Amino acid sequence: MTADLLIPRTIALLPGALSAVAEITAVTLFLLILYRTARPSQTQRTGNEKFLAAGLLWFWIGTVLEAVFFFAKATAANEYQMVMRIALIDGPLRDIQLFGFAGSMIAGVSQRLIPRVYGLAAPARNAQSLLFVLMNGSLVLDIVCYLLLLTTQNIYFGFGLEEAYLLMALWPMLLARQLGIFSAPSRPDRTFKFVRAACIWLILACAMLPFFLVYGIFTHQVFAHAFMGSHRHAYTVGFISLMIMGVSSRVTPILSGIDAKRLSSLWGPFLLINVGCAGRVVLQILTDFIPSTAYPLLGFTGFIELVALIWWGAELWKVMLGAPNGDIRGLLQSEVKLAQTD
């Protein structure tokens, strides 16, 4: 971050290089430790491992590309060259981070965890490979066509990019079906609404992608920043944040040995986070049409989301404080209980 603040001065290159080496080394060692830890495991494979492996691979690629991105900006000869380099690298980098890393990791963990803790039907093993190919194939097609479209200006790569966006709109529906998120859970819990809402936001966010190029043409923009920002907010806050809020609030009481039925329903933070996210998604697009009205309200939606996260965090903190201190045996028993919940 310090190096980014020093751009475009030459002195930025030294901390930038040190940071890049440190980050790539740390991520590489982290992945190596995970591999050596998991390799001797005798646990039966469930099919979710390939999602986790792909997510970690995208994590490493994203870390390397982050370093490339920095040096591309730091060595730009002028403002125009910097803008063009940002346009070329930033989009693929964000897609790798959101769809490759976060998306794959959530898909892998959720197919293992969510059906068990909520009493839903087990994911179909024969659909896992299709989901895996759709997620990673669409991302690769997206990156390749995006780069070729910007570097060659060939419209045919635009059609390829649109095809990638259409495929990206399909896999969220398949993931939701795998999780059985729209069926009634046999173990209903206060947190299930977060997980279901997260999947709805995921479907909505990815359904926006096929309209990105069309929207840009309609509004006479080479790159529709407001529309893409709206999509990414729906994905990050709507999908990722709600999934984190739901799963953590479900698992923590189990590991703490606390009956979730005695806890808050969490309707307050749930409603606030969804209202704030919906407001941001809609208002960001409206900045293209009524900027004087939409821009002042955008900050308020962020305040709503902040209140929701603070409220949720306080509730989670109370649960953790209520856990037995130092009771290692109880904690292990709780973990075994979670693993056997099916």
Brief description of this entry?
By secondary structure, the protein is mainly α. It has 13 helices and no strands.
Question: Can you characterise this structure?
Answer:
The structure is a single chain. This protein is mostly helical and 342 residues long. The chain has a domain at 189-342. The protein has 13 helices and no strands. The protein has helices at residues 2-6, 13-38, 49-74, 79-118, 125-152, 155-168, 171-179, 192-208, 212-218, 225-256, 267-286, 291-321, 328-339. Helix 10 (225-256) packs antiparallel against helix 11 and helix 10 packs across helix 13 (328-339). The protein is globular. The termini are far apart. The relative contact order is 0.07. Mean pLDDT is 91; it is low at 325-332.
Overall geometry? globular
Give average pLDDT, whole number: 91
- Spans with pLDDT under 50 lasting ≥5 residues? 325-332
Sheet with most strands: none
Q: Estimate what percentage of residues fall within beta strands.
A: under 5%
Approximate helicity band? over 70%
Structural class: mainly alpha
- The tally of helices reads 13
What is the terminal-to-terminal distance? 44 Å
Number of E strands: 0
- In N-to-C order, the SSE pattern is HHHHHHHHHHHHH
Q: Rounded to an integer, what's the Rg over CA atoms?
A: 22 Å
